[in-house]
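Retro notes, item 3 of 5
We never archived the inputs for the adenosine monophosphate complex last cycle. Fixing that now. Sequence and ligand:
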Amino acid sequence: MTTIGILGGGQLGYMLALAGYPLGLHFRFLDPSPEAPVGRIAQRVTAEYSDHEALEKFAHGLELVTYEFENVPVTAARFLAKHVPVYPPPAALEAAQDRLNEKTLFKKLGIATTAFEAVDCAHDLDTAVKKIGLPTMLKTRRMGYDGKGQWVLRTAEDVAKVKQNFPDGPLLLENLVTFQRELSILAARNRSGETAFYPLVENHHRGGILRLSIAPAPRLNPVLQQAGERAAERILKELNYAGVLTIEFFDCDGELMANEMAPRVHNSGHWSIEGAATSQFENHLRAVLGMPLGSTATEGASAMLNLIGEVPEAGDVLAIPDAHLHLYGKSLRPGRKVGHVTLRAASAEELNRRLAMLPAFFRREEFCLELYRSARIAD
Ligand code: AMP
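Structure as it came back at the time:
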């Protein structure tokens, strides 16, 4: 019996397990929350990541450990690595958890990224603003997600204001990039060094939360795709990586600028469950187990819409041809990702028609209409 241990018991872990069952795999999850949704479908250990006794017990009999959450303390991953193989390597967690490490890695590998300066105190902020210039963006280096812990500073008054109520912890100042759109690439590397890449995906956020992903990204050309793959390849090799890696980019007039990376499966890859020959979840498992990777070829065009805090009537969604509903079994709370819908179609034109068939639930807010308009895929 092959049992895989997963740190983090959220929806990404849930979908990893669903992809692994047909391969005959078993799963054991560790999450500090007794509410973690994987409890529905797999063994769940409820313990803190700092509880070494619990980690040791958790590791017992596992084939390997992976993670679905990048803020797992590196110390926990390293502790586990003494007992059982851990993939992706803990060094990838270390790089991704701290924006300074992440951007330094991009720079070292020749991957274009924003100008950046570390900021540890109010005095550093003045120096960094002088170097980078206004407008600029201040971010917490650690634990930032879904747009939290970020401040856009456009004027000297904005700088003065943030200094009065200076945020805790180490920070990073970046130049405020002008970009046309946001893209991401999902890449996989297995333990023998074989790699595979999904096509770049176009992502639309609102309130710092991903709302819609279109795959492949509209107007994707081979030059752009190669640039994404080259960046991913460098990181995979440098970290001797095994698993799925995600890099998020800004598309600046056809030039990719790396913003951040996640050493795990990613929300912008959920479309691959129905929209690619092999999903990101299955490929992550194949990669960490050292198995051959599956084809990343797309099957038509896909759009993935997150369900945030509430869910539509299932029948309304499923009435659309080739629509797929995924509910994670989480309690409904504002701002929480509780499920997603993937629409798939043979062509971009057909996908546009299917987006237009979405029930009123998806149109209550004006931004949705704007979103679909701006994401029109056939132009
Ligand atoms: P992040 O947490 O780094 O993914 O940032 C959340 C969102 O803020 C991104 O998806 C962008 O829309 C925006 N953003 C982040 N960094 C920058 C930047 N340097 N310049 C302009 N926009 C940014």
